[in-house]
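Predict structure. Chain length: 287.
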Amino acid sequence: MLSLLAATASVADPIQWAELGLTPGIDLGFFTLRWYSLAYLAGIVLGYWHLSKMIKAPGAPMAQRHADDLFFYCTLGIIIGGRIGYATFYEPSLWTSLRFFQLWTGGMSFHGGLAGVLVAIGFVSWRGELSFLRVADYIAVNVPFGMMFGRLANFVNGELWGRPSDVPWAMVFPGAGPLPRHPSQLYEAALEGALLVIVLLFLFWRTRARYRPGLLVGVFTAGIALARFTVEFFREPDAQLAEFAADTGLSMGQWLTIPLIVLGVAVTVRALARPPLASGQAASGAA
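Prediction complete.
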């Protein structure tokens, strides 16, 4: 997409986001089905479909009934955790406003959603007597689908734009002033989404990574945190946190990803240092 945008742009005449013909959703007359909501739905449904396919391969740590439970509880974790995380770290005023419940307007935190998913995995694993780490491995492979769709929806909505720039594909976003900016939403869709999808699918289907508990979730955690840390250099900080970024040298998103990078690397190293599970041996609790 970036190459297409670059081909139609020039330094003297930056791309106007408003002229791309993008709409916030599908107008049903009485209701607009927003792309932001559809992006979450598409990521969850695709992740559920692929998880169901994964557990049919040798060595699965769970049965289909566990995947069904995870589909339900992880969805709740993404929505509730994502909103709580955004209100806590990015816009505390939401705690005293009914806007907290207006999810269709945007405002979800990756870190909060991740925490919600971990709680969901912990609950399902505890109730089903499953290995938390191995279940987390399988879920981690599917999370980048949702990240990719979500960031594309941010671009379609014209929100979370990047910093001012003179790159050929820079564009002017309504509400962001007259300066052309990085389309950082597309950078995030590529790094946090598409790239991680390729890496994790390759590791799962083409290597024996599934037999090393913690390896897939470790690679996912370190990878997505590094991607987010990198993209934050091109993304405009939230208006209410611009002063925080200027004072500390890093954005709130970058500070929150540093512990994830350390954790992801540690989990990956631990997984590689330990002996793998026996080939084809299903974990306890699978049926």
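Summary: Residues 106 and 272 are 39 Å apart (CA to CA).
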